[in-house]
Amino acid sequence: MPIGRRVEPMTDTAEFGSNEYRVMRDGAGSLGIFDFYSGGAAGEGWSDSPISPYGETLDDLRADLHNMILALNKPVLDTETGKPWQGVADA
After folding, report:
1. What's the pLDDT at 68?
2. For the residues of 64-85, what is the DSSP string, one character each?
3. What value does the CA radius of gyration of the chain take, rounded to a whole number of Å?
4. CB within 8 A of 15, min separation 6: which ones?
5. How far apart are CA 49 and CA 7, in angstroms?
6. Using CA atoms, how far apart are residues 5 and 8, in angstroms rounded to an integer?
7. Domain extent listing, the chain
8. Who has greater pLDDT, 46 or 91?
9. Structural contact between residues 31 and 76, judged by C-beta atoms closer than 8 angstroms
10. d(CA 3, CA 73)
């Protein structure tokens, strides 16, 4: 069963596996970018709320924003299940 809980990025790759940014839609229909973890012993997990870009330098911030933009090209996930959202796709 997926776990919708806040986990710190890459704290334990054995437990949380790999992480990536994913666009997720909540029950109210709002979209946000979330930290999404899969492949670890803990199963799937994601941040409990949308995240903001972060960087200690301008280059770090630029890279973080770039990775968030890449998430826009992947299927939208449901915040309740972590599975692809089954509603009508936005253009």
Report:
1. 95
2. HHHHHHHHTTSPPEETTTSSBP
3. 13
4. 40, 41, 42
5. 11
6. 10
7. 13-78
8. 46
9. yes
10. 23
- Give the pLDDT of residue 44: 79
Distances (CA, A) of 69 to 31, 32, 46, 73: 14, 12, 18, 8
Q: Which residues in 55-71 are b (16+ Cβ under 10 Å) and which e?
A: eeeeeeeeebeeebeeb
The beta-strand segments (E) located in 1-91 are: 17-25, 31-40, 43-46, 77-78
- The mean pLDDT value of the chain amounts to 80
Task: Give the phi and the psi of residue 16 in degrees, each rounded to 5.
Answer: -100, -10
Tokens in use for 33?
Answer: 């970018």
Cβ–Cβ < 8 Å for 61, 53:
yes
Tokens standing for residue 7 = 């986990």
Give me the residues paired with residue 23 across strands. 33
